[in-house]
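Our preliminary data section would be incomplete without showing what the modeling component actually yields. Below, a chain of 255 amino acids is followed by its predicted structure, encoded as tokens that our downstream tools consume directly.
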Amino acid sequence: MIKDLNVTDINEEEVEEFLDALRPGQISLVLFQAMPDVMFWIKNSKGEFIYFNDAFRGHLRIKPQVGMRDCDMVPVEMAQVYMQDDQTVMETDQSIWNKVELVVTATDGVEWRATSKVPLKNRDGMVVGTAGISRRVGLTEGVPLPSQQRDMAAIVGAIYKSVDKDIKVSKIAESVGLSVSSLERLFKANMNTTPKQFIIQAKVSTACERLIGTQMSVKEIGVSVGYSDHANFTRGFRKVMNMSPSMYRRTYRRQ
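Predicted structure:
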């Protein structure tokens, strides 16, 4: 669930002061505004958004505002991961490069993105915030990733291509030459979730796309993502999305 909004009252003058205080040469707002496929943002040390480009603004159902934090816009489970990464970057003064993670979309579905974050310093060399970029990792294309994350992306791609089946964690582990426990550690390290939980997310994410983009019935969509029993599909969907598939379709087809 997304918590009630609690937006800090940051005015334009404070934003200008923050940006002016940064050490020159760290970021280029104009460059990232010109990249429609890349989400870009800046946060201060409190985790409050100071700036975001049009791609970021258009990606979420809840429209971002200066002063919001991640927990104001996305489910708390995901927000905690994002905010912890921000804190780690600031505390260690070390960047995070191409972390493959789940990101909520404008229709409350989820997609894979490769996210990088860097510490931002003021003119005195003090870390005062973070900047980040995020680019979608497709099933057949994506940004260059470290080997472990490439393996992770390949596993994710295989899961998405098999959402119509009853996907067994043991079979996934066997197909990539890992034990179940090693596969679980890989998912935990890269996505802070389990293989079983991600399989459910992948099925629900695919169902969201089909509820919005096709004329298939809800029952047909359930079958298409591996649920032969309509009641089980509805329960599983509601558990992730906090609404029924039918309500989801009615809500987002009007927008």
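Residues 1-7, 139-145 have pLDDT under 50 and may be disordered. The longest strand covers residues 110-121. Preliminary results of this kind motivate Aim 1 of the renewal.
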